[in-house]
Amino acid sequence: MFSSLINEFNRYRKSRMPAGIFVPLALLLCTASLSGGWPSTPISWAVNLFLASTFLLQFRLWDDLSDVAKDRLAHPQRALCLATSLTPFRCVLAGLFVLNIGLLALAKPWPFVIAFLILNVGFLAWYRMASAFRFSDAVGCHFVLIKYPVFVFLLSPIDNNLVVPSLFYAMCLVYLCFCVYEILHDQRLHPFRGIVGLLLIEMVALELVAALMVIRLRYFVEPLAAIQFGLAIVGVVVLVFLFRRHRKHVPPGRWCYSIFLLGFTLLLNYSLATFPIHETGLLK
After folding, report:
1. Are 128 and 41 in a shared domain?
2. Are residues 123 and 175 in the same domain?
3. Is residue 90 located within the same domain as residue 20?
4. What's the pLDDT tens digit per position in 37-84?
């Protein structure tokens, strides 16, 4: 029986948590968090990457457990729908929550632990409300995506109040990347009235955040600002390409992942401005 449960969880992990997707996402979150300060030791780097991974695992599993009733109708082939019992998965979820709380308590100041607890309470309330009030998928997906910028905040050292605006831009960029991806990728959202307009608004907002990053770097780190400007222009091309494909109802395929590659390059260049080699502190 125990081996059967292990096999079920491995089947779930491979289908819903493949390393080829979750490792890059963890790197994206860690890169965004560098806007708030760089980890001081290799151990801090490792803890941040591990935390990013366990955050993603906990909330992916939680999201799937909350949707299992709908998935039994829409996606009966998914591992949770085929599982003999959901109790082991709920135990894993509880274990991930305890692990994340413990790591945050050891590695971060207490406000970060409180922020994580608030995030979990908020999601617990949301899942209860979503089942009771039947919010639309478009509303639901935009709410649950809030967790990603919160992860960026939790991973950031924020060792200097001067970099807080930089971290805010990074958090906004991460959220908008996930919003754009979700609309492009999730076929359930496509029939909603106004979804194309919402996609356009979010793409424009993403480019506005990229422009604000360029302006911020221009006053303090001009070489990086020039690179950031070039990346923002590339971003316009990528977003126009993706928008036109969406308007023509072309299946997104792997092209929708390009939004994360764009976000990663923008965030990496932007985060270099806070690299410790800049002795005087370039973002003031």
Report:
1. yes
2. no
3. yes
4. 887 778 888 889 999 999 999 999 999 998 887 877 777 788 788 777
Kindly report the pTM of this predicted structure.
0.91
| Distance separating alpha carbons of residues 255 and 251, to the nearest angstrom | 9
pLDDT at 150: 97
C-alpha to C-alpha distances, 71 to 18, 65, 74, 82, 222, nearest whole angstrom: 19, 9, 5, 10, 50
Where residue 69 sits, what CATH number does that domain have? 1.10.357
Domain that holds residue 22: 1-159
Unique residue bearing structure tokens 């409180």:
114
**126 and 173 belong to one structural domain:** no
pLDDT at 133 over 70: no
How many distinct structural domains can be found in the chain? 2
pLDDT of 161 > 70? The answer is: no
**pLDDT tens readout for residues 85-120:** 888 889 889 999 999 999 999 988 898 999 999 999
Is 83 in a helix, a strand, or coil?
coil
End-to-end CA distance of the chain: 59
Contacts of 9 (CB under 8 A, 6+ apart): 88, 89, 92
Burial per residue of 77-86, b for 16 or more beta-carbon CB atoms within 10 angstroms, e otherwise: ebbbbebeee
Are 155 and 173 in the same domain? Answer: no
What mean pLDDT do residues 200-224 have?
A: 90
Q: Token pair for residue 225?
A: 């600002």
Alpha carbon distance 263, 123 (integer Å): 25
3-class SS of residue 84: coil
Last residue of a domain, one of 124, 159, 194: 159
Q: How confident is the model at residue 282 (pLDDT cuts 50, 70, 90)?
A: very low
Nearest residue to 80 via CA among 14, 2, 141:
14
Domain boundary among 159, 192, 213: 159
Q: How much is the pLDDT for 134?
A: 65
Q: Are residues 29 and 131 in the same domain?
A: yes
